[in-house]
């Protein structure tokens, strides 16, 4: 499950919990009204029986809503904990990514330095090679002139 799914689930459970709380309060208020009505109409047995029956039904519904409310609250708490866990994991991954990026940047800088060193070494080697070629040409030219002098004599 993704962090968004868990967050959405948490918000859904929170809304469900709010709805259940409102229904719970409405049933509780209705129950209080019925209890008051039952006390006021105690003389009338038929009204008392109807009120008692409705009170019993409302009590059953109230009990069921209490269980649903506890379940919804538990689910919302669990969703919130999961969201916090995933947020922590995302933060750890973000930190690791930053560390990896720093390592890559350092390696790129090192590579760039090594390329520069290689270019300087190549240039220096090329200069030394040119100097050696020039010296060799001069030595060969000198040897050739000495050979020609000796042959001429």
Account of the 3D structure:
This protein has 153 residues and is mainly alpha-helical. 95% of the residues lie in helices and 0% in strands. It has helices at 3-40, 45-152. Helix 1 runs antiparallel to helix 2. The mean pLDDT is 87.
List the helices and strands and how they pair.
Elements: H1 3-40, H2 45-152
Quick summary:
With 153 residues, this protein is an all-alpha fold.
Descriptive labels:
153 residues, mainly alpha, rod-shaped
How many runs of DSSP E, i.e. beta strands? 0
Query: What is the radius of gyration?
Result: 46 Å
Uncertain residue ranges: none
- Main beta-sheet annotation: none
H/E element sequence: HH
Give the fraction of residues assigned to helices.
over 70%
């Amino acid at each position: 499950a993704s962090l968004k799914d868990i967050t959405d689930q948490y918000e859904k459970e929170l809304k469900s919990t709010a709805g259940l709380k409102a229904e719970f309060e409405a049933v509780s208020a209705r129950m209080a009204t019925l209890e008051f009505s039952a006390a006021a109409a105690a003389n009338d047995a038929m009204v008392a029986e109807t009120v008692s029956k409705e009170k019993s039904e409302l009590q059953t519904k109230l009990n069921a809503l209490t269980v649903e409310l506890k379940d919804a609250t538990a689910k919302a708490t669990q969703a919130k904990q999961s969201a916090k866990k995933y947020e922590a994991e995302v933060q750890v991954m973000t930190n690791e990514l930053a560390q990896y990026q720093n390592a890559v940047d350092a390696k790129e800088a090192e590579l760039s330095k090594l390329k520069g060193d290689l270019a300087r070494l190549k240039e220096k080697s090329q200069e030394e090679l040119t100097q050696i070629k020039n010296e060799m040409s001069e030595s060969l030219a000198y040897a050739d002139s000495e050979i020609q002098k000796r042959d001429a004599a």
